[in-house]
């Protein structure tokens, strides 16, 4: 099967629309797909999550919106009492087909702010791993995402999104600023560029593969 | 990204899902489902909207795709899809007989990504 990135496709406006008139258009998963996987792209606001997903996705990226209650830890539903506020968290996602069309790899952008932790537990469940995007102009914006991932035990790699004019630092300084484990991969990418973004995802996936082998060895001991 | 809620009269999730409050563990955002058969006239309005999406479709949709298409919260769609799988209206795609019985998902993803650059 041959899938081109959605942005290269001349027919990208010709998406299959849902049967009901009010539904937003969606591209169906090919009937060849029997397995799916998920990689989470995390990071602070404006760090390029949606850009990276759009660069590599083979279908037009879509957006989901989840209402969450704030300042109500331990409360498990949306009772809507007046002193609680509900915000809507937007999550963009895209899809890549691979293995001769047998696998659909979904890429979900998750907001990294720690106040969205309730969402993380649900949405990161079952993820292969996470790519954390960071911007050298505001490395602190990555801390919430890194903390959530460390807390949830989700393996991750960090990619510095190289914005034009953003300062560059030696790797050791970046690692220290981000408080990264020595084993955690740190790479650079241009989220606007498909190949560069794919390389960042490959770096993550290679690490996940090694990470899992190491975990297996540990269990056998 | 975060703002005040848009609809003060938002329908509570457990109303939309007709009382079901938990999703099946195997129904995640990326889980792909295909339409099976069965009458839909006993289903609730949101479940019927889900089933209408599949009308005439040659292929499946992941939970996330359904949430985006119907503009419903993904947490609600996970529960709706769980119910529709339990009732047999939706099912997981099944590998063709000549498919490899099982393969290493992570290795296949790695190989797939490498083949794209």
Automatic annotation (TrEMBL), chain B:
Domain of life of the native organism: Bacteria
Matches recorded under InterPro entries: DUF742 (IPR007995), WH-like_DNA-bd_sf (IPR036388), WH_DNA-bd_sf (IPR036390)
Protein's recorded name: DUF742 domain-containing protein
UniProt organism field: Streptomyces tendae
